[in-house]
Amino acid sequence: MNSKSQAGNAFSFSWWHETVIGVLLLVVLLVAGWLVPGFLKPHSQLLLSRHLWEFAILALGMTLVILTGGIDLSVGSTMGLSAVVFGCVQTSTGSLVAASLSCLATGLCCGAVNGGLISQLRLHPLIVTLATFAAYRGIAEGWSQGNSYSRFGTNFSSLARGSWFGVPLPGVIFCVMAIGFAVFLSNTPNGRFLKAIGHNERAAKFSGIAVERIRFWLYATSGLLAGLASLIYVARFDTAKADVGKGFELDVITAVVLGGTSISGGRGNILGTLLGLLLIHETRLFVSRYWRSDELQWIVIGSLLILAVLAYQLIARKPRS
Amino acid sequence: MTTAEAVIQIRGLRKSYDGVHALRDINLDVAQAEIHAICGENGAGKSTLIKMLSGIVRADTGHITVSGTQLLTGSVQASESLGIAVMHQESAAFPHLNAIENLFVGRELTRCGGLYLNHIAMKSQTERLLQRLGVSVDLRVPVGELPLAQRQMVALARVLSRNCRLLIMDEPTASLSNRESQTLLRIVQQLQISGVTVLYVSHRLDEVFQIADRVTVLRDGRHVATHRIADVDRQQLICDMVGRSIEEQHRPRAHATDDSAVILDVTQLTRCGVFEDISFHVRAGEILGLTGLVGAGRSEIARAIFGIDEFDEGEVRVSGRKLKGGSVQDAMASGIGMVPEDRQHEGLILPMSVGENLSLAMLRGLTHWGLIRRRAERDLTDAQIRDLSVKAASSRIAAATLSGGNQQKLVLGKWLARKPKVLILDEPTRGVDVGAKSQVHGLIRNLASTGMATLLISSDLPELLALCDRLLVVRNGRIVGELQGRTATQEAVLSLALPDAAGLQLREAQQ
Amino acid sequence: MSNLLPPIGHALRPARFGVRFSKLVRQRETGLLLLIVLTCVVVGIKDIHFLSCEVWREILVRCAATAIVACGVMLVVVTGEIDISVGSLMALLAAVMGRMISEHEWDISCWIGIPATLGLGTLIGVFTGCLVSVGRVPSIIVTLGLLTALRGLTTLIMGGQNIDRLPEGLTQLAKQGLCGVPLSILAAVGVIGLTSVLIHHIPLGRRLYALGSSAESARMAGLSAVRLKLFVFGYTGFLTALATIVDVPRLPKIEAGIGSEFELLVITCVVVGGVAISGGHGRLSGVLLAVVLMTMIRPVLTFMDIGEAGEKWTRAIQGMFILLAVVTDSFFLRRQRSSGGEHTA
Amino acid sequence: HDSSQTTGTSGETATASAGSHKLRVALLPKIKGISYFSSCFKGAEEAAKELGIDLIYDGPTDGNPRKQAEMIEQWTIDGVDVICVAPNAPDVVASAMQEARAAGVSVITWDADGTAESRSFFVNQASAQAIGEGLVNAMLEDLGPDTEGDVVIISADATSENQNAWIETMKPALAKSKLKLATIKYPGENASNALADSQDVISKYPNLKGIFGISSVSFPGAAEAVEQSGKGGKILVNGLSTPNDMKKFVQNGTVRSFILWHTVDLGYLTIHVAKALAAGELKPGATSLKAGRLGELSIVGDNVMLGDILVFTKANIDQYDF
Ligand SMILES: Nc1ncnc2c1ncn2[C@@H]1O[C@H](COP(=O)(O)OP(=O)(O)OP(=O)(O)O)[C@@H](O)[C@H]1O
Ligand SMILES: Nc1ncnc2c1ncn2[C@@H]1O[C@H](COP(=O)(O)OP(=O)(O)OP(=O)(O)O)[C@@H](O)[C@H]1O
Ligand SMILES: [Mg+2]
Ligand SMILES: [Mg+2]
Predict the structure, then answer these.
(1) pLDDT of D193-203, one tens digit each?
(2) What pLDDT is recorded for position A320?
(3) Strand B287-292 relative to strand B453-457: parallel, antiparallel, unpaired?
(4) Which of A207, A214, A267 to mutate to test the interface with B (most CBs of B within 10 A)?
(5) C168 to each of B6, C93, D102, D244, how far by Cα in Å?
């Protein structure tokens, strides 16, 4: 995690990682299309994509967080807490709008607490989110007493199950957001600042970048996205429960780092994350539909992560001078 | 001197980084027990040459022979086994380890057949070495918490602790003030007497003339000349380095008038335990120098003004407006800019490109509907690269690949682009070559004449005397005196800067 | 002239009042110890049984495996890397060990099975180290990959069956122990002693800290990052195997879910114990105190008798404990923040 | 549909004549890789062989209901004929099951029921009511009905639906007895935590008479804790488990009795129900079904009843091997 000062050079191709992941994705698609009949059919792809969107939305926030050299382990738990708040508010007020808003607000608050602890107390993000990872989930469990809330009506579930020209609605939401995030990252000062913070926080501070404020909003955003993902999740399964989003954090981080965002900060982009997400998703589908073995899926995803990054290191990095 | 006596023979050494020639066909002989200086502009290839000798960088072609044995470039161990010890340009310390541990990393003193660390021996050796260097360093404190100068001395001690036959030093005095530099030079001379060969890289020509036996000049990766020091004068050397003669400006500039507006006004600024009761003002067009020994607290005063650190009491005003303490954004908004002391960690974001670094501090001013205007950004950075003549292949390469001096220019350019009202410069010419230095000086003068207020912190007394209208001397976190740039002398400054006993002696001697 | 000058540096600064004291207060260990003692007092008042020998014997036994692995992971973090695969590795090793030595399975002798398990653990550790140092894949990625892959592999090896009937001798040693001291405690004491000697008295330990402090400087000092990283990961793999051997026989049976969330626990202990995530700094004492604190939480909740509804807040309380432990010293650090320094770990 | 590519985990049943349409049945456990469901799968495999069915057995190894939904969707797309679901969280999988039905796939539940509209039949081995009361009754029987003292439940997670449902039925049953429910612990699906929590409650409650370990991890954990504390026989442990897993504890007296149904038969029956449904032999309203070696089984409403809960004791445990 310590190799921040790797020298680039004038003629380097800076999209190696994306290329490697893209090629891998193509290989997986081709092999799967050949071995599993109907694998590439747009209809089934779109239908099965619905499990992707919550991750994808979380991954947008996580990309930014990891880009600054931080990490947010609490997103899954934030989802759980947001879902419980949604359920509580919905059952007590009967209003879906109020419930949805409080769901998002909970996400934002959870993120803000992370951000506040990280930026004000100057604690390491890993520690803070490790603590809130347990805390948020625990609050959700305690508050809901482990019960689940369900039956929110078909109107609501169409938020997640509806589609727009065949594309699931969450997918549309994600695409719009992804474009927004990509533009933010590459074309706005704040996007550039995120990278600067990731590479060298101290120098960023000396350049007049409001490091702490950006950090705070970054984690708040990540929380807000978790709230949104939670909302979609709840709508899709028509259940709100404290275990919503369990284990999401590791899957999301896997996708983001597979997409080439450097865990030590500074490097990464939305396209890479998107490719990482797709690669994992398609591989899982392929393994699941071809071998019908969940344990094999774990093995393949784990090895894929290592091999993809290894391949990138071998191809794109010249041996040390 | 025939090649037969040479300890180091360098033949046809080449190195290029992706088309950038750092070194081309270098041939060099260094004799036994000689102090051989290497000079050259920023980016001439000095550090590259040294990195090759120390085994960090592999040569493309060519070879190096040390005392008749061919050196395998690219292996630190190989170099070490030939008795080469190196003090690198950018401090190679381990910030979390204390001085003792730093000194012996990689070749710890052990007992019981190399198994067990010999703490006592290491401690006493460290103490002995540091005493010899005339520094007192808290041995328990992690080196990262020590001031730069002390860190540098620890690095020197590290090199000395190794009984080397060949000592290589890459700008060892860049972060030292005059006094420590003298200690260091004395030690180098002692080493020479005991038979050690020294390769000495420095931009401070005075030092070169003081200790070197011979001097080699590199330019653009090429070997230009090797002179006996007796055969060459300063002008000649400079001419070799930059390819033309430049006039070193030592004459004071036309001073600012006393009635121009006060831009920066600092009153009774205090940060407990660091500095106390700091009051001064800087007028438009004025250059105010802040001097003192290393560790006196100058950098911290600057940092507090710029809002990096919070302060406990006092206030800072810019053109009458009071600044919020501890907010860099507020300081920048009211027109302060600051070139920090440590360019590698504070000044630049090394993995980012030259262009991105240059525009970083003023990116918000380059937007349209919240989006960065690429064109405007490129124009700005190209202009800066041109104006400061930064030696970089393009504005898209990483700042990390630039030579030390060029990196320093980048930091300057980053702030000049903002056209600040007040510019705080903390050691702006550290590690900058003579040519660039006079260029930087010219820049500072020009900017001052356009009405910018400048606070200049430097350990380089001649530089301060040449540039400043007024000089404040800081000792122990307090301002102990003010001198007029016109009349100040090095002795006067030193007598104020030195701690009480020694300073008193000096002050008495002067009277 | 210069001979007359006093040495530069500290002598220049007026001695700060209470530097020693503030330093003590700032140490993570102080906060942890305070928290542990305070909790004990509170729970002791509520139910004095909590302070009995039997309860603490059990708590220490539970600490042992975590402490053993934390010693390794701490060194990994000190070198600037991270290892989050220890839980899955433990499961895999437990499965393999069970398969080998259980009476219902291949029933190989312990004298072969146990060294083989240790060897396999070390081997996987070294393999991880290889990918990290030679392959230059960031350690978080390698171990994240292994975290998933090894878990899948374990399920595959277990084949949906649980393994019990480990050799009687081994389970007896793990439960009753030698002269009343359970095997895991003995192993933990050994490992802690070894690690402590390694850190303080062996050149290798020093170099790990140096490497973590600055990889670039380490390169310039001629240290071999590859070898050092192979060592730390190998050591962690070995310790994970050791923890598996001494801890798993204590459990009723070996199932595929063994060691779930163990990596999280270990990492929590390491960071709560004050080891800097970015490497270069960390003390064993802090980590060990953190292990005790984190292990204590469950029994504390039981002895506080927080009731049925309260039990569902368990996780929330755990999170609060982690926060409390790290916030205590950062509270004291606050005053000293300066110059945009890095995060405290 | 083309089925030649899908080899189930039960590879040997998947071969056979490519041309003729072979019934494809997917069996989805709550958690794959734990011994309970592995023994169900044994029975399912047996029935599949008997009936010439192409059996797909897959499920989440971590028991994640979201993954269950995903698998149901994949199978729907792949055109499986019958999907048998053991829902880990009925609400989460409900919509996927409904979609599958809409696409013409027959869906049944087994082991645990789903929402009524999401499946056509439920292979019912025991209701939550029966399980909860069965546990309490077995405990009371072992302790003696008039025993006073504390009991503790060691569950899984606070959010585990099945465990929570059982707890809800255990509470009234316990209220009728003289036993007091001291607390409920949630160690998660973690063997070390289960052992630790059990040890702690043993030290905490001196008047503890019994522990219910109601997950596959907490039951052996509690038994182990009692055994290690040397209070075997004084503190009784009860729960649900396969006999093979608990044999050791029953034989050494730590566990006097525990309950479960015949899991192998459960898997066997499920496949038979699937086959009957696909073949049109089983229609809504039917009151009985012939299921191979199990003979004629009754159907109550849309529940196919497996039969009574088994109580395992030292006397009978050696008769079972699953
Ligand atoms: N890692 C690298 N990648 C690409 N170019 C490099 C790298 N290191 C050095 N260079 C280039 O090689 C040339 C020589 O650099 P070097 O650091 O040797 O200069 P120098 O003489 O030490 O200058 P200074 O006095 O500023 O320290 C420069 O043009 C520099 O940009
Ligand atoms: N004697 C000392 N004891 C403890 N810390 C010190 C001491 N001297 C300096 N420091 C620390 O070292 C750092 C550097 O000192 P500082 O930057 O103030 O020196 P300076 O006057 O700017 O000199 P220079 O810029 O030449 O290094 C500060 O963080 C300061 O706290
Ligand atoms: Mg240089
Ligand atoms: Mg300074």
Answers:
(1) 999 999 999 99
(2) 42
(3) parallel
(4) A207
(5) 74, 19, 56, 18
Query: By C-alpha distance, which of C339, C341, C317, C315 is closest to C330?
Result: C341
Residues paired with B417 in a beta bridge: none
Both structure tokens of D56 = 């797909």
Percent of chain B whose predicted confidence (pLDDT) is above 70: 93
Confidence of residue C339 (pLDDT cuts 50, 70, 90): very low
Q: Give residue B160's identity as a one-letter amino acid code.
A: L
What separation in Å is there between the alpha carbon of B46 and the centre of ligand 3? 6
Residue B294 backbone dihedrals phi, psi, to 5 degrees: -60, 135
Instruction: Spell out the residues 6+ positions from residue A104 whose beta carbon is closer than 8 angstroms to its own.
Output: A82, A224, A227, A228, A231
**Would you call B349 and A196 a contact, using CB atoms and an 8 Å cutoff?**
yes
Most informative mutation of B98, B148, B179, B276 for ligand 2 (most atoms within 8 A of CB) = B148
Give me the residue spans of the domains in chain A.
48-317
pLDDT band (50, 70, 90) for residue B81? confident
Give the tokens for residue B228: 């006996």
pLDDT band at D1 (very low <50, low <70, confident <90, very high): very low
Higher pLDDT, C206 or A6: C206
What is the DSSP secondary-structure string of A249-306? HHHHHHHHHHTT--TTSS---HHHHHHHHHHHHHHHHHHHHHT--HHHHHHHHHHHHH
What is the percent of chain B with per-residue pLDDT over 90, rounded to a whole number?
19
Domains of chain C: 2-338 (1.10.3470.10)
Residue-level pLDDT at B396:
87
Q: What is the pLDDT of residue C332?
A: 63
* Location of structure tokens 């070894």: C194
Q: How is chain B split into domains, by residue range?
A: 3-242, 259-335+420-511, 346-418
Q: Do the beta carbons of residue B211 and residue B34 sit within 8 Å?
A: no
C-beta atoms of B57 and A210 within 8 A: no
Q: Which CATH class is domain A48-317?
A: mainly alpha
The answer regarding whether domain B3-242 maps to CATH 3.40.50.300 reads yes
- Domain B259-335+420-511 in CATH: superfamily? P-loop containing nucleotide triphosphate hydrolases (3.40.50.300)
How far is D166 from D180, CA to CA, in rounded Å? 17
Cβ burial of D283 (10 Å; 0-12, 13-18, 19+) is: exposed
Given a cut of 90, is residue A4 above it in pLDDT? no
CA A57 to chain centre: 6
Buried b (16+ CB within 10 A) or exposed e, D39-66: bbbbbbbbbbeebebbbbbbbbbbbbbb
Q: Is A146 on the interface with D (CB under 8 A)?
A: yes
Tens-digit pLDDT profile for residues B226-284: 999 999 888 888 888 877 666 655 555 555 566 788 889 999 999 888 888 999 999 98
